[in-house]
Amino acid sequence: VTGARPGPAGQATVRRHNLALVLRTVAAEEPVSRARVAARTGLTRGTVSSLVDELLAAGFVAELSPARGVPGRPASPLQLNRAGPAGLGVEIGVDAVGACVVDLSGTVRALRTVRSGHRDEPPAAALEPLARLTAEVVAEAGGQGLRVAGAVAALPGVVGPDGVLERAPNLPRWHDVDVAARVGAALAPVVGDVVVRAGNEADLAALAEREAGAGPDFLHVSGGIGVGAGVVLGGRPFHGAGGRAGELGHVVVDPDGPPCSCGGRGCLEQSAGLEPVLRAAGVADLDALATAVEAGDARCVAAVTGAGRALGVAVAGALNLLDVPAVVLGGAYPRLGPTFADAVEQEVALRVVWRSPVTVRVSVLGEGAALRGAAQSVVRELVDGAPA
Amino acid sequence: VTGARPGPAGQATVRRHNLALVLRTVAAEEPVSRARVAARTGLTRGTVSSLVDELLAAGFVAELSPARGVPGRPASPLQLNRAGPAGLGVEIGVDAVGACVVDLSGTVRALRTVRSGHRDEPPAAALEPLARLTAEVVAEAGGQGLRVAGAVAALPGVVGPDGVLERAPNLPRWHDVDVAARVGAALAPVVGDVVVRAGNEADLAALAEREAGAGPDFLHVSGGIGVGAGVVLGGRPFHGAGGRAGELGHVVVDPDGPPCSCGGRGCLEQSAGLEPVLRAAGVADLDALATAVEAGDARCVAAVTGAGRALGVAVAGALNLLDVPAVVLGGAYPRLGPTFADAVEQEVALRVVWRSPVTVRVSVLGEGAALRGAAQSVVRELVDGAPA
User: Fold this and answer.
1) A323, A348, A352: which to substitute to probe chain B, counting the most B Cβ within 10 Å?
2) How many helices (H) and strands (E) does chain A have?
């Protein structure tokens, strides 16, 4: 969704276009022969050969050993390079930091997370352990022949198009911080001057779910202290007009409900965020809640069911607005079990107006999704665009 | 937002691309010289001349008289042809039908509407007066040198990607009807075998608002018996994954509220649709309500304020999800006056989480928007794509 118009098509544009087309074809069909790439793209064999040579030289594509026992000149199948360019994802959560490197195929090659008590501290309190962790994963990936070509930082807040964190109620000292610049400076000793972008953790988690096989069209809900959503449409993240779409936590489920940190009242976050759920259940933490719900404790079951219903009401509204046919319950929500998912599903089935069945399913990635998605978004851009 | 990948770029593709580029440039800059088109597109003068000749022959572009008094060969500025290809829009409302012809510039050249008591009747009851009305506007436009190149029908319901009306609670006999085919058959005696598509009236009304200068990013709310929304992002309609986005009327504003025609409870439509508002106000129709609100009648002011607040709650949720910075109140809502708009604005200001100011404004087109938008969407597609 963009208003930009393409310019006239010329010789260089055509080559760049076809280079990207060949790379995407290798990504989609690997391992794949040059002949098949030619057949799939409609380009001539000669053109494909020349473009593949360029991709080999840039390290984007690798040749596998030729198939043995085939008469004549052996064919070397192509695949995305598992060494060479890689994506770095880092996450600054409410009470943890993480770093992750994926190869061009999106496979995780190194990943570490660590608890960090930086919630009410200035950015440096999170950036210091983050830089240490990043150095570790980058070294680990480097040992496997990978070099970081770009980085994305995931944060629990609204990241503006300029990379500035506009709202992060649960990371108050990060408010109005230029995240891309700050994280970039902190990581420069480790990764040099690679471009660092910043994104919302719910959006990035949705991308990871997409890579893990969800989609192409779904709403990913990330449950935690806050409640965020990432929308994937046609296999791509939906960002809205200003890059801040998906603030499901501040959809109203009870107009006269309790005040919310956003200044409004009765937002979903006040019904389905983890803190009000634990309060309603009368337990101290998520593990205790999960255990009690499984054991059938009435108060805990009621708390989780109530939260699921509230989420279902908000999700149904979102589906009616966005027309997407599937919901993935992610973040901490998978830990609330089928009691929660069933309550969500029941409200969604009742309230979605169009007739297609809506799928409600629980994330397979859970709380690790945003970190993976951050790293994968780097390589997704490398593969979807043309190599520089 | 599409998952489709472009194929390789070749000679024919490049010409088609550049033809469309020249047409869009004429549309954006008219009246415009060939030299300026060349400068804006980056194409050579010779290429532009040849492409313009093709567009002149197809009737998409017209030459104005050359500028006088200029020495040397006079330049004939180009503009979109005001005769030639035209767009037909038709509307089947809950209690009226309409037809409208616009030229390639989107200007209305013929428009008629008529009340029609077809609400609980089979489709033929609306199609008969519609065909009569269409014959009249097509004749009127034909007298101005316009010929219909395509048609779009606007309906108050969810139109699936296949042109079938999936939900139209206020036109029950149209449910599951292939609207594009039925309207196409009814209009064939008038317009021959031009392609007829079908769309949701709220989406098409949003497009008309866009053409009238709103946007590029806004939510258009169409108030009536039902409440629908059209979303425009980057100047283009946002359709969601399945073409049915924008069902704002079935966003929940009160989870335990009154049952709704959709099977849910407490949908916005039960608070901000015209019927509950008139009931709460205790008046018979919209004119009486508007008069009473203006006179300060307490019950009517309270009814309109309550509806505006409910709409504001739902709109704020939609803005948080979609990240659009503006709302246009259309359909019958402009008739409810500033009392209504102020209540909407107040809730939106309270509940939108990101900090950009949100603009709430009242539509200038009101109930005529969908019909115009239907016709304009035809020419928009003609100008955005290349002529056949």
Assistant:
1) A323
2) 12, 14
Per DSSP (E only), the strands in chain A are 61-63, 78-80, 84-92, 96-103, 108-115, 146-155, 158-159, 165-167, 196-200, 218-223, 227-233, 236-238, 326-331, 359-362
Answer yes or no: do B247 and A354 touch at CB < 8 A: yes
In chain B, whose CA is at the least distance from the CA of A264?
A: B351
φ and ψ at B296, to 5 degrees? 85, 15
Partner-chain contact A323 B241, CB within 8 Å: yes
Mean pLDDT value across residues B205-218: 89
**Residues shown for chain B:** 388
Q: Determine the average pLDDT of the residues in B187-197.
A: 93
Which residues of B fall within a CB distance of 8 Å from A13? Answer: 9
Closest Cβ–Cβ partner in B9, B248, B313 for A252? B313
> How far does B71 lie from chain A, in Å, by closest CA?
32
Measured between CA atoms, the residue of chain A closest to residue B160 is A354
C-alpha neighbours within 13 Å on the C-beta side of residue B217: 17
Q: Do B251 and A1 touch (CB under 8 A)?
A: no
pLDDT in tens, A153-191: 999 887 877 888 987 777 889 988 999 999 999 999 999
Output b/e per residue, B251-262; b: 16+ Cβ within 10 A: bbbbbebeebbb
Q: A234–B253: do the CB atoms touch at under 8 Å?
A: no
User: How many interchain CB pairs under 8 A, A with B?
Assistant: 209
Q: How confident is the model at residue A71 (pLDDT cuts 50, 70, 90)?
A: low
B210: nearest Cα among B36, B4, B384, B60: B384
Nearest chain B Cα distance for residue A252, angstroms: 6
Contacts of B262 in chain A (CB under 8 A): 351, 353
The pTM assigned to this predicted structure is: 0.79
Whether residues A167 and B236 touch (CB distance < 8 A) is answered with no
Say which of A1, A8, A263 has its CB closest to residue B18. Answer: A8
Please tell me the predicted confidence (pLDDT) of residue A8: 62
Separation CA A332–CA A363 (nearest Å):
10
Distance CA A24, CA A29 (A): 9
Please say if the pLDDT value at position B386 is more than 50: no
Residue A130 and residue A99 in contact, taking contact as beta carbons nearer than 8 Å: yes
Contact between A131 and A187 (Cβ < 8 Å): yes
Which residue has tokens 């609330």?
A336
The tens digit of pLDDT for each residue in A200-258 reads 888 899 999 998 888 799 999 999 888 989 999 988 888 888 777 888 999 999 988 99
Cβ separation of A247 and B320 shorter than 8 Å? yes
User: Binning pLDDT at 50, 70 and 90, where does residue B3 land?
Assistant: very low
Chain A nearest-CA distance from B6, in A, is 8
Q: Which residue of B has its CA nearest to A235?
A: B3
Q: In what order do the strands lie in the sheet with A326-331?
A: A236-238, A227-233, A218-223, A326-331, A359-362
B268 to chain A: nearest residue by CA? Answer: A317
Mean local confidence (pLDDT), B17-35:
92
Model pLDDT, residue A215: 78
Query: Do the bridges between strand A196-200 and strand B326-331 make them parallel or antiparallel, or are there none, so unpaired?
Result: unpaired
- Selecting from A2, A21, A245 the residue whose C-beta is nearest the C-beta of B234 gives A2
Tens digit of each residue's pLDDT (9 = 90 or more) over B93-143:
988 999 999 999 999 999 999 998 888 899 999 999 999 999 999 999 999
Q: Select the residue of A8, A231, A354 nearest B21 (Cβ to Cβ).
A: A8
| Exposure of A259 in the CB half-sphere (CA atoms within 13 A) | 3
Q: Which of A126-135, A344-353, B74-83, B304-313 has the lowest mean pLDDT?
A: B74-83
